Structure formats: structure tokens, C-alpha cells
Amino acid sequence: MPGTQTTARSKGSTDPVPSGSPAKANGAKGDGGRAKAPKVATPWGAAIVVDEVSVPQRVGDRRFAVVTQLLETREGERLVRFAYTTDGSARRGPVTMRARDLERLRAALERAPVLGEVLRL
What we know:
A hairpin with a 2-residue loop joins strand 2 (39-42) and strand 3. By secondary structure, this protein is α+β, with helices and mostly antiparallel strands. The relative contact order is 0.21. The chain is 18% helix and 37% strand. The longest helix is centred in the C-terminal third of the chain and has 11 residues, at 99-109. Strands 1, 2, 3, 4, 5 and 6 form a 6-stranded antiparallel sheet that branches.
């Protein structure tokens, strides 16, 4: 869509976090001043957001974004979450994207290398 931009942001280091060491990515003391990665709830338990991209969407007057997040559990398992957001909070529901917006997702993933590697898009 003209006039819209995709966004990508990494939480913590882009280096892989050793299994059993979520504090490193979670910004615990001794982390070199990195911001604390936000925690999210999943059916597999709490996880931290490691990497994220957002693709703005618009239908008529409604504005929202499709968010793709790389999550990591305390045990080091990686999860990928696709969600809608209207105010920065992930919302449930099947996520539907137009084919042309998938190109924008691919472009955003270039700025989120860890998430892009996991998805291999």
C-alpha cells in the first residue's frame, strides 16, 4: 500500500540464546544494557519475544497490523506467532493477508534476520 511501511525490531541480541539461558535474551543484569524482552503467554507457557515484524494493513477506515513474532520459551524452544494488532497487543483469530502484502512481509524479514531465518521466506 502506498504510504505505509513495514517495521521490524529485534528484542535483545540476534545471537542464538543457549538453551536454558533465557535471562540473556530477557535483559537480566549483566546484559550489557539491553532492554528487557517482553514476555508473552502461549499454550506452551511463557515466552519472550526474540524478533518481530509488523505489516500495516487498512480496510476502508479500519487500520491494523499483522505481526509475526519469533518467541522463545524458558526451555529454549522457538515458536512463531502470527497475530493481528490494533494497539500494540496481539489479538486472536485467523490471520489473513493479501498476496501482495506477503511481499511486504518478506521485505520486513530482511530487517529481522533471526525471524527470517526461522521462517526461511
